[in-house]
Every structure is written in C-alpha cells, then in structure tokens.
Design goal:
With 221 residues, the chain is mostly helical. α1 packs across α6 and α2 packs parallel to α4. Helices cover 75% and strands 0% of the residues.
Length: 221
C-alpha cells in the first residue's frame, strides 16, 4: 500500500525548467525503512511514512546537487580518457558516476537502519498534527496531478476503452496480478491483430479504415 501511494505521488513529480522534482529514490527507500521501524502498519502509520517520504525527498535534492556537481569533474575525467583512447578509463569513470548515484541513496538509508527504533518512533511522534495532516493533504493533491498527467497522455479514442475497462476490473478482488497480466496480454494481441486489418471501418461502408479499428468504431458512433 505504501509503494502504491508513493507511486501515485511520484507521477506528479516532474522536472520543469530549473525546478527539480524531489528525490523519489531516497523518498521511497527511506520511507519504507521508517514505516517498518515504527511498527504501525495502520493508515496512520502509512500517512506518517508518506509525510517522511515527501520531507526526505525534498531534503534529498541537496544530495542530488552534490552528486551532479561531482559528475561534472567525472565527465571531464572520462573525456580526458577518451581523448587518449583509454577505453578502460572511460569505463572506470562511468562506474564511478553510477556508484555516486548509488551512494546517494545507500548512505542515508544505512544511517536510518542503524538508528534505534525508539528514536524513529519518538521523532515521528514529535511531529505536530498540522504538519502531518498538511503534508498528507498536499500528497493527495500531488496524486491528483499524477492522475491528470496519466489521463492527459491517454486522452486518445484508441485508449479510452482500455482505461474504463480498468475501472470495471478494479473492484474484482479475485483477480490476481497474473490474471490481470494475462488479460492485458490478450487485449494487446487482439488489438494488434485488429490493427493489421486495414479493411473497412466496421460500419459496412466501402471507405477504407484508418488502420485503427477501435478508433474507426468510435468515430462511427
């Protein structure tokens, strides 16, 4: 549940111009650690973990800037190795750059792992209600933005039927992930096979279709 909530929030995070989105990687890993250490797996505990994720994601921007500053020097080193034809040097500096990205998440996460559980619980309990509730409400706003972005990308006549079909299948608790995946694969195969049919639009006319049978059917209606 925590992962799904964070995924919905992260859909609304985007880099726009000079504005950098919060660090989703650090937010997800650190909030999962905090969620487990608190031992409160109710909705209240989940909201506290989401608040911690948003806060740590914002703080993680400082680590992101540090890593990007180091990456400038690393890129110059890799360029120097490339000018000499040193492929091993280029590969080495690429690995160093990737390691810096990993350490950006590993160091704070390790620090949280070694913190006593009582310390984490006490720090979260000390947060005022106005802060936790305000961050939870703000996270809900970001979820709405993420939904809007997804719907905006799906706003085509060809995809709308699958979108509403997902809402129809969502209440069925008996469907497992495997069953849902099989349904998705079957629908994709059917859609591809119908797309290969470049005949009429389905309305009985002699006019050739656009190559998208679902779009032609919706246009007829």
């Amino acid at each position: 549940m925590l992962g799904g909530a964070l995924q919905l929030i992260a859909m609304g995070w985007a880099n726009i111009g000079a504005a950098v989105a919060p660090d989703a990687a650090l937010a997800s890993v650190a909030s999962a650690i905090i969620y487990v250490k608190t031992g409160n797996f109710t909705d209240e505990g989940q909201n506290l973990a989401i608040v911690a994720a948003i806060t740590l994601g914002t703080v993680g921007l400082a680590l992101t800037m540090v890593v990007r500053t180091l990456s400038v020097a690393i890129v110059h080193r890799a360029d120097a190795a490339a000018e000499k034809g040193d492929f091993r040097g280029v590969e080495f500096w690429h690995i160093v750059a990737l390691a810096c990205q990993g350490l950006r998440i590993a160091i704070p996460s390790t620090f949280l792992l070694f913190l006593p559980t009582e310390t984490v619980q006490g720090a979260l309990a000390a947060l005022p209600d106005w802060f936790t509730k305000g961050m939870a409400i703000g996270g809900g706003f970001v979820v709405a933005v993420g939904y809007a972005m997804v719907i905006n990308m799906m706003a085509t006549p060809e995809v709308w039927p699958f979108f509403f079909l997902g809402f129809a299948l969502a209440p069925l608790n008996q469907l497992t992930l495997i069953a849902t995946g099989i349904i998705g694969v079957v629908l994709a195969v059917v859609y591809i096979r119908l797309s290969q049919n470049t005949g009429g639009s389905g309305g009985g006319g002699s006019q050739a279709g656009s190559g998208d049978p679902l779009g032609d059917i919706l246009n007829d209606y």
